Amino acid sequence: MTASLVVLAGCTHTKPIPLPAQSTVPATTGETMTGDTVNLEVQEAVPAGVTLVKAQNFQFQPREIRVKKGEKLVMRVQSVDGFHDLKIDALQVATKPLAPGQFEDITIPTDQIGTFEYYCSISNHRARGMIGQLIVE
Ligand SMILES: [Cu+2]
User: Fold this and answer.
1) Which of 3, 14, 45, 74 has an alpha carbon within 20 to 30 A of 35's alpha carbon?
2) What is the secondary structure of 24-48 as a DSSP string?
3) CA-to-CA distance for 55 and 124, rounded, in angstroms?
């Protein structure tokens, strides 16, 4: 009995001063976070200097890319749905076949002025509209 009283006494001695019942700090926790500000951006950030080219059934986005001669051009070819690739025969560049969601960065030589067709070489995709133009000017 005596021992417990001593312990309680010790406790009360070191007990922190209770906060006043009326706190002046507004209780905002949870109150200002109810708005639905969910970021629906699904795309990964494309690094600066990289041109995103989306490949889907059955088109490329964009269908036309213009660059100045000698300008650095890296195309990030990303499949949105289905299997696709991107080839430019005249410049001897190509990606591997890309599964949905996959991408590949390819560096395009731009030392030649001209219009170069890019296309998807998978199945009959080219005939179905998977073509675009790279214009180096
Ligand atoms: Cu394709």
Assistant:
1) 45
2) SS---TTTTT-S-------SPPPPT
3) 14
Evaluate whether 103 touches 74 at the Cβ level (below 8 Å): no
Tens-of-pLDDT digits for all 137 residues of the chain? 444 444 444 444 555 555 555 545 454 444 444 444 444 444 568 898 899 999 999 999 999 999 999 999 999 999 999 999 999 999 999 999 999 999 999 999 999 999 999 999 999 999 999 999 999 99
How far does the centroid of ligand 1 lie from the alpha carbon of residue 51, in Å?
A: 18
C-alpha 108 to ligand 1 mean position (Å)? 19
In a domain, 18, yes or no: no
Q: 127 in a domain, yes or no? A: yes
Distance 131 CA to ligand 1 centre (A): 9
When divided into structural domains, the chain yields a total of 1
Å from CA of 1 to ligand 1 middle: 85
